[in-house]
Amino acid sequence: MRALILLASMCCIAALIKNVADAFGVHQKIWEPKRPRSTQAYVTLLYGDEFLLGVRVLGKSIRDTGTSKDLAVLVSDGVSMDAIRLLEADGWIVERIELLSNPNQQRPARFWGVYTKLKIFNMTQYQKVVYLDADTIVVKDIEDLFQCQKFCANLKHSERLNSGVMVVEPSAELFDDMLKKVSTLPSYTGGDQGFLNSYYPDFPNAQLFDPNLKPDQRTPRQMERLSTLYNADVGLYVLANKWMVDGSQLRVVHYTLGPLKPWDWWTEWLLKPVDLWQDIRRSLKRSLPGTGGGLVPHDRFVVGVLSVLPVFFVAFLIWYRRRPPNGVRTPLCNASLSGWMRQFRLYRTVLGVFSAAGNGANYQNGHTKHIALISIVVCFVLALLSAGEAFHLIPRQVMPWTGMLLLYEWTIFLFSLSFGTFLGLLYDWGKSTSSSSSPPYKGHSKQASIWDMETTSYGFGMAALTLLVPCLPFLLGITAMFARVGTFVGAGMVLAVFMTYSAQNLGVRWFLLGREDGGSSLDLMNH
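RESULT FIELD:
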C-alpha cells in the first residue's frame, strides 16, 4: 500500500512539474531535433528572437506554394526556448548551432556572427538546400531552384553576389576549405557576403540559370547566376517606385533596406512592398496559444494595456472632478494636473522663479510676447517628448494600424496631460503676479477650466491635424517612399504652424486669466 501511495505521489509530482514546465515554456521536444524528411530543404538562419516573426512569415510563404521539401532553421544560443517551440509548431526543423566568430576587425558590430551562414555549406544531411534570409518572402513557386548547379546566387547592381538567396550543394570538404580561408580572404562588407565574393571570384561570369531546361539538357557547372526574379531587392524598388523586372513574375522579395524591416509596424507606412509581407503575416495560423497573426502573448497583453490605460485615466479624472469624495474638492478635482502638481516642491520652485521674474511687469503693454514665445517652445518640446515616449512604449512587431493608433492615442494623451499642466502653471503664474488694477481679460469666465470651448477647439484642431499627417499619403494614393515622406513633411509643416498659433494664444490666454482671477481675489479681500 505504501508503495502504491509513493508511486501515485511521484506521478502527481511529475505531472505537476510537467505543467509548470509547460507554463514557463520548457518543452523537452525542443532538445530532440526532428530528422530530415526529404533530401532537399529550404533553410534559413535565426540569431535571436528579433527575427523570429520574419522566419515565421518566410515559412508560411514557402508552405503556401505547396512544397513537400523540408523547412530547416539553424538557431544560435540567442534564440529563446519559446521561440524554438513556436518554430517547431509551425513545421520548421530546428537545428541548434554555435556561432562562427567574424575574423574581420573592421566590421559593423551587428556582423559579429554573420560568418555562421557558411554552415549551410555543411548541411550534408541534404543533397541540396535553398537558403533564404529571414527578411525574404516567397511569392511564387521556387521548386525549380533545386535544379540549379552546385552554387547559385544573384548578382546585384554592384556586380557582386548577394548572399540573401542561394542554392547550395552541401559538402564537408567545401566547408572545411572555407574555414581555412576565412582569415585570409578579404571581405568588402566585413561579413559573409564579402567573403563569398572573394571565395567565388569568377561568379560574375557564371551562366544564367534557366529553369525551363530539362535535366538532360543541362551542362554540369560549378556555378550559375540567378535572375533578379529570385531576389527582388526592395531597395531598388524604392529608387524607381517599381520593380526592375516584371512584377507579376516575381518569385522572392528581399527587404534589404537596413533598419526598415517589414515586421516593424512603421515600415508599411513608408514602403509599398511591405503590403506583400503583411498580407502573409495576417494569414499566420495560431500554432500555439496567442500566436495567430504573428503576435505573441506578451505583445497582445501590452497592446491591451496600452489601449485602455489612457481611457481609464481620463475617465477617472473626469469622474473625480465631478464627484469629489465627501463633497470636499481636492487638487485632483481640477481639470488639469496643475492642482495636483502644486503639492510638489519643484512645481512651487518653478512658479516662484516665474513670479519673481514677472513682478512689476506691464503684461498688457507688450510683455505677453515673452509668454507666447515660452508657450511655443514648451509646446513643441512636449509634443516631441510625447511622441518619442509613445513610440518607445509600443511593441515593434504589432500590426501597422495597431501601432499607428497606439502612437496617436498615447501622443495625444501624454501631450494633453503635460501641456495642460503647463497651462495650469501659467494660470498660477498670472495669479501670483496680479494686482487689483489688472484689467479684465476678454472672454474670461468665472469658472476657469482647461476644458473650456476655446481651449478644447485648439486641442481638437491639433489632434485632427496630427491624425491627418500619416493618413494623407494614403488618402491621396501616393505609393513612392520619397513622395510619402515629402507629403508627411508638408502636412507636418501645416501642423507646426497651427501648433505655433494655438500655443501662443493659449499661453497668453491662461496667463491673463490667472491675472484677472488674482486681481478679483484681491478686490474681494480689500472689500
